[in-house]
Amino acid sequence: MLHFTVESAIIFILQPYEPSMTHLKFRGATPEVLNESTILIIEDSRVQRMMLRQAFENLGFKNIYEAEDGKKGLYKTLEVKPDLVILDINMPVMDGFKYCQYARYNAELKNMTILVQTGLTDLQHKTKIFESGATDFITKPIDLNEIASRSFVNLERALHVKKLETFTARVSQDLESAKKVLESTLPNSDTINSLKSKYKIDLAAEFKSSNEMGGDLWGLEKLNETQLAIYCIDFAGHGLDSAPNAIRAHSILTTHENKPSKPGDFLVWFNKILTDLLPVGNFATMFYGIIDTKEDILSYATASCPSPVLLYKNSFPAKLLSGAGYPLGATKDATFETESVPFKTGDTLILYSDALLEVEMKNGEILGEDRLVDSFEIFTTQEKFDSKKSLENFLQNFYNEYGNNLKDDLTINVYHRML
């Protein structure tokens, strides 16, 4: 005797949908969607759950889960992280509205597709469905071709979003690693403290990239017992455009021996290397100087950098040094002159990138060199000079006045000859 249950009847009835798979695959049911997508059916009617499950299995989906009410559905959602939820609205324990609200509280589920099935079609009900966090809805009685088509469209989108999130996470991780490499090239606190002790120079520095990575580079090199080389470089562009160039430059500056001793000759040497190294159209600006604590002199050369600022002891306005010169990497035959100025105890040298010059003021004008130099007066107002504290005060006043809307990488170095 043949026993014909409700469940077997439903399965039998669903078989006619199988021939339509070819059409639905054309609409987007790629093997990737079928194999990698996870579907959760939350429906209190066992018959409806079976019907939907069988339909999706017939279409080739591999990962299908079920729950009989909103509460169990929420637990299952947190467990399997479905790409698509087929959700009934009217259920015991927790209805579909509550489920949507709780699901959307979880940041991990923000991109999950929730496809609501409902028998209510008035405007107020539809509005409530979307306000609760649903992605889309279909009306009962369910048309399996319609629910399949909408599912394919949403699952294809979900797959693209998942790939994008995976790619973004990988890129972010790579950028964070690269950023740490770049930051490791900058002088650390031990180096700065050693400098302070050996040369009686109080140094403070601020470096801030405009996005994940920066193209600015600054550093120090102890030449002998009384001479300290300092430099500040700004590669054109920012982020991924310029950061690799900064890392290459650091490698060159720290591995080459017998570099030229005069700043002008040094820039000639460095420029020839960068011209061969940098891609066409890339260039860098640079300040390279030598502080001689015995002779109380700063000798320096510049390559199209912002004007260095000298603050003499108990004196203002500041002295602007010329930052003129060819940018590095522009032409291999460029020459650079060495200049010298007094740099005695109590004097302060400030180097900075052009991010400070290009900041936009509240009236829409660019800050510019004159206004920027005027703001450096704060460095002369302390009874006992402290480079770190002075720089912190300057940056606080600067951001309060002009906002933290820098459009390029920021570097600022303060070198103070201690009394």
What characteristics describe this protein?
alpha/beta; 15 strands; 2 domains; Rossmann fold; 419 residues; single chain; elongated
Point out poorly predicted stretches: 1-27
Biggest β-sheet: strands ordered side by side in the sheet: 2-1-3-4-5
The largest pleated sheet is described as: 5 strands, parallel
Instruction: Note the beta-strand portion.
Output: 15-25%
Give me the count of strands: 15
Structural domain tally? 2
Distance between the termini: 108 Å
* Average pLDDT, all residues: 83
Judged by helices, strands and strand pairing, the structural class is: alpha/beta
CATH superfamily of the largest domain: PPM-type phosphatase domain
Query: From the 3D coordinates, which CATH architecture of the largest domain would you assign?
Result: 4-Layer Sandwich
Query: Any idea of the CATH class of the largest domain?
Result: Alpha Beta
Q: What is the H-and-E element order? A: HHHEHEHEHEHEHHEEEHHEEEEEEHHE
Number of helices: 13
Shape descriptor reads elongated
The Rg value, from CA coordinates, equals 33 Å
Helix amount, in percent? Answer: 40-55%
By oligomeric state, this entry counts as single chain
Annotated CATH topology of the largest domain:
Phosphatase 2c, domain 1
